[in-house]
């Protein structure tokens, strides 16, 4: 199976974008070899600004560049982008609706060995709650590449959530990503799994496995958490049972966003696969995903519970 | 202010800005007069003598930029913008009212001429750095000015910005510290001293000059000096008096964020007549 990390796809896409658009500038906070902005820095040294280990300055400077007509991509780990620099993102970028693209890598538990201090498990909730912010969680490398271009073309702040490990490729170049539009990867009438990021691949595996239990399960990739594709959520709800899956706490993330639509427009049984209000810890990404209930098996179990079937 | 006679027009303008500040904060019933009044001469020099501006084209790419990092001093910015022709002076009394472009803290989306939305302290210098970097990238010769409070220097982000401005040798940027020595809870030196301010900036790689922030001769000379500094950023530490120009507000921390009552407005305006 071909795999690529979304941060790797981001780094490559930035170079491609930089060649096409001279207004694109990139900022980092001493993590360019990890966020992969180093590729851009190498090709466009004059348009790359390392702000050092200073995330507040990173976001503020990006805002100043955007206010002067540039299209800045500001990168650091998600835990610092959404957490440490929250006030700079809120008051300096989102409130004045400044055209900054925050590309946050190393999101979620799949950071792995660095442990809980570096595992952003609540960043979607934080960024989703801020007015004017668009929140995108790509499911693979190709979607990341297209999301980078879409973010650059979009006027306004964007939070792009990316991961550390190589993950399976889902899309090829025929796919057409659009901000605010979900993509249905698999049709099904018995239940629907709505997933984002690394969990989309797990959802596909789960749906395949559920066929052995006689269940035809829809799989929807909601890569734009905000603005949410309400029509896609309602179409999923038409199956009568919805399971959400995200590498994020179940408080305030994709599951919550889906629940907000279902509760107000079309109540159906809902289960959320995600982190249960706890911090992570050190470990290998796969070990952590298993321990914290973020695998295809966990999704399968959630669907079966909703459908009244035994595991 | 021994040199006011040398600058009759600027002095008259400064007096009008002070009147606007008192009127607008009085009408609003809330707001920040103290730190607005301390910055009047600085703002007057920038908006009426030094900065390249065109009120008819607030987004003119070649304009000089001004960032009010101490965003609570919005009244002095609004007074300067109104007097300079960015919006009608009559509008100043809508300050802080529902639907007014004169938000409690500056909102760039609401009022043309406001470059950056500020209010959360510490942000302005980093944003100004970004503007200065963009100017350099685009080969434009505009200058970026950022006004900081002295209490604001307690925010760590200011020093992240100070480090970056020196690192990137931003000589198209000038910072001005409104050193009025008071913050909400009392004397800056007592609450959390940022002293020695000039030494700190020098240690971060800046050129510094300390002046009387109410003396137009010194302000204009310092702003000219700052533009001549090459290869590093320059900071002007302006020694000022909080509440300057209104006797009962001068050097009183209580007037940081309190509006004058109607009779106090009248008394202040009489002093500023």
TrEMBL record, chain A:
Cofactor(s) essential for the protein: thiamine diphosphate
Keyword Transferase assigned: yes
GO molecular function: 1-deoxy-D-xylulose-5-phosphate synthase activity
Pfam families: Transket_pyr, Transketolase_C
Residues in Transketolase-like pyrimidine-binding domain copies: 4-169
Enzyme Commission number, as recorded: 2.2.1.7
Xref: CDD domains: TPP_PYR_DXS_TK_like
UniProt entry keywords in alphabetical sequence: Thiamine pyrophosphate, Transferase
Taxonomy, superkingdom: Bacteria
SMART domains according to UniProt: Transket_pyr
Family (UniProt): Belongs to the transketolase family.
Protein name: 1-deoxy-D-xylulose-5-phosphate synthase
Organism: Moorella mulderi DSM 14980
Gene assigned in the entry: dxs_2
From TrEMBL, chain B:
The enzyme's E.C. designation: 2.2.1.1
Keyword Transferase: yes
Signal sequence region: none
Molecular function GO terms recorded: transketolase activity
Comp. bias regions, Basic and acidic residues: 260-273
Keywords annotated in UniProt: Thiamine pyrophosphate, Transferase
Needed co-factor(s): thiamine diphosphate
Name of one Pfam family that matches: Transketolase_N
Residue span of region Disordered: 253-273
Chain ranges of the Transketolase N-terminal domain: 15-268
CDD domains linked: TPP_TK
SUPFAM superfamilies: Thiamin diphosphate-binding fold (THDP-binding)
Annotated family: Belongs to the transketolase family.
PANTHER family, per the entry: TRANSKETOLASE N-TERMINAL SECTION-RELATED (PTHR47514)
Protein name: Transketolase 1
Organism: Moorella mulderi DSM 14980
């Amino acid at each position: 199976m071909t795999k690529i990390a979304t941060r790797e796809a981001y780094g490559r896409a930035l170079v491609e974008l930089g060649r096409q658009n001279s207004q694109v500038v990139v900022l980092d906070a001493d993590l360019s070899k990890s966020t992969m902005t180093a590729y851009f820095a190498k090709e466009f040294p004059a348009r790359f600004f390392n702000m050092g280990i200073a995330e507040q300055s990173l976001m503020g400077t990006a805002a100043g560049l955007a206010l002067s007509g540039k299209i800045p991509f500001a990168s650091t780990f998600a835990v610092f982008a959404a957490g440490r620099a929250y006030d700079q993102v809120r008051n300096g970028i989102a409130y004045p609706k400044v055209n900054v693209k925050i590309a946050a890598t190393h999101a979620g538990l799949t950071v792995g060995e660095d442990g809980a201090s570096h595992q952003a498990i609540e960043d979607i909730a934080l960024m989703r709650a801020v007015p004017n912010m668009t929140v995108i969680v790509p499911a693979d490398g190709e979607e990341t590449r297209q999301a980078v271009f879409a973010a650059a073309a979009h006027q306004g702040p964007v939070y792009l959530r990316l991961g550390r490990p190589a993950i399976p490729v889902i899309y090829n170049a025929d796919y057409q990503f659009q901000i605010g539009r979900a993509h249905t990867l698999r049709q099904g009438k018995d239940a629907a799994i709505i997933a984002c990021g690394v969990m989309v691949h797990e959802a596909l595996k789960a749906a395949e496995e559920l066929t052995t239990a006689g269940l035809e399960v829809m799989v929807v990739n909601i890569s734009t958490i905000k603005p949410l594709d309400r029509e896609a959520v309602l179409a999923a709800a038409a199956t009568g049972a919805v399971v959400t899956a995200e590498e994020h706490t179940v408080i305030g993330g994709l599951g919550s966003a889906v629940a907000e639509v279902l509760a107000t427009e079309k109540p159906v049984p809902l289960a959320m696969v995600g982190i249960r209000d706890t911090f992570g810890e050190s470990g290998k990404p796969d070990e952590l995903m298993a321990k914290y209930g973020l695998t295809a098996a966990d999704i399968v179990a959630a669907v079966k519970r909703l459908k009244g079937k035994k595991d | 202010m021994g040199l006011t006679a040398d600058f009759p027009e600027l002095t008259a303008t400064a007096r009008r800005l002070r009147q606007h500040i008192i009127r607008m904060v009085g009408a609003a019933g809330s707001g920040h007069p103290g730190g607005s009044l301390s910055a009047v001469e600085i703002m007057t020099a920038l908006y009426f003598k030094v900065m390249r501006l065109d009120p008819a084209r607030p987004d003119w790419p070649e304009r000089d930029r001004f960032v009010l990092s101490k965003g609570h001093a919005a009244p002095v910015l609004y007074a300067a913008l109104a007097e300079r022709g960015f919006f009608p002076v009559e509008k100043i009394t809508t300050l802080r009212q529902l639907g007014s472009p004169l938000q409690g803290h500056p909102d760039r989306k609401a009022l043309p001429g406001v470059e950056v939305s500020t209010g959360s302290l510490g942000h302005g210098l980093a944003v100004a750095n970004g503007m200065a970097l963009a100017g350099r990238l685009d080969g434009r010769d505009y200058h970026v000015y950022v006004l900081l409070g002295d209490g604001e220097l307690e925010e760590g982000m200011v020093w992240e910005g100070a480090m970056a401005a020196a690192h990137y040798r931003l000589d198209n940027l000038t910072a001005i510290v409104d050193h009025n020595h008071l913050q909400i809870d009392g004397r800056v030196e007592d609450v959390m001293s940022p002293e020695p301010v000039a030494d700190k900036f020098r240690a971060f790689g800046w050129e510094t000059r300390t002046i009387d922030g109410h003396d137009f001769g010194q302000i204009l000379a310092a702003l000219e000096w700052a533009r001549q500094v090459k290869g590093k950023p320059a900071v002007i530490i302006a020694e000022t008096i909080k509440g300057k120009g209104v006797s009962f507000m001068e050097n009183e921390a209580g007037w940081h964020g309190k509006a004058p009552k109607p009779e106090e407005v009248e008394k202040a305006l009489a002093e500023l007549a």
